[in-house]
Automatic annotation (TrEMBL):
It comes from Volvox africanus. Keywords: Signal. InterPro entries: P-loop_NTPase (IPR027417). This is Sulfotransferase. Residues 1-17 form the signal peptide.
Length: 291
């Protein structure tokens, strides 16, 4: 009987799909403003700047403009390195909720010492088999994530603002068409927790129409094209809404503004002001050769 229950538990644990972590529930809200002293400032990059962009919207030009700020290093596409970190974070954060953990109220033992954890083990070990015993904790996953980011991307130390630009964070690519809004929010939330201070640029063309985005839509036909139209429209909405709701750490850029000689000097100053840099630093969106 006992063995059968353990077996069932084992099977259900194995086949149970990995739940995407709900980053907004009460349990996780606590970590949203993860105290700096607990993360340890040496384990987290101080300042990060990320550029999330729709394809063919001038993200390399924006990246190059930001890289003209002396202490900035914004990398190009990172082939999902950071997205994989996000996925790992979500999966690892769901481990404490796994069914094999329910016989101990781990939440009450978040700060438990090694000695206490061993005692908890000892208290159970005579009563049951403990194949899933572990004291895995979500806040450590966050610390580990920050350390990983810091070592890979933020290793030049304080004073250097490091980040990347990526065009995969759009509906239909990194984020599923049907859950784009949830996944976008979760990812932005994650970006903000990766570093002590995070700033985000959300870049696209001004207009999300087929006509205004020939590079995206030209290769597509039929249903694929319709879906892509919906995805791009949704992405624009998400970018707009996010910046409207988070102006202190998010800034909306439209590609056309970077190349319009009447407006681009103002845009450059606004970007520098947003970054709390000298607004008169000479940065240019048009330094690179056209494609
Ligand atoms: C604005 O655009 C003009 C014309 O393309 C260019 O010469 C100038 O350098 C640009 N200014 C900035 C700040 O990029």
């Amino acid at each position: 009987m006992h063995l059968f229950v353990v077996f069932l538990l084992g099977v259900t644990t194995l086949v149970r799909p990995i739940q995407p972590l709900d980053l907004y529930n009460a349990e996780n809200a606590r970590y949203a403003d993860f105290p700096r002293r607990r993360a340890g400032h040496r384990l987290a990059a101080e300042e990060c700047v990320f550029v999330l962009a729709t394809p063919h919207s001038g993200s390399t030009a924006l990246m190059d403009a930001l890289n003209q700020i002396p202490n900035y290093l914004i990398r190009g596409e990172n082939w999902a390195a950071h997205y994989n970190l996000f996925n790992a974070y979500q999966r690892m954060s769901s481990i404490p909720q796994s069914p094999g953990q329910s016989y101990i109220h781990w939440r009450e033992h978040r700060q438990a010492s090694f000695h206490t954890v061993k005692s908890l083990y000892e208290a159970q070990a005579y009563q049951r088999k403990l194949p899933f015993f572990h004291e895995f904790q979500v806040d450590r996953v966050l610390i580990a994530t920050r350390a990983y980011y810091k070592v890979l991307f933020g290793h030049y130390g304080n004073g250097v603002v490091a980040g990347f630009k990526e065009t995969r964070y759009v509906c239909g690519t990194a984020f599923g068409s049907n859950q784009c809004s949830e996944q976008f929010s979760a990812y932005l939330h994650f970006l903000r927790r990766t570093c002590i201070r995070t700033k985000v640029f959300l870049l696209s063309r001004t207009d999300n129409s087929v006509h205004a985005n020939p590079d995206i839509f030209e290769p597509l036909t039929g249903g694929q094209k319709l879906l892509a139209e919906r995805d791009l429209e949704r992405t624009h909405q998400l970018y707009d809404d996010y910046v409207r709701n988070n102006p202190e750490h998010a800034f909306r850029v439209h590609m056309e503004g970077m190349f319009d000689h009447k407006r681009n000097a103002t845009l450059a100053r606004n970007i520098l002001t947003f970054l709390q840099e000298d607004p008169f630093l000479p940065i240019q969106f048009t330094r690179m050769p056209p494609k």
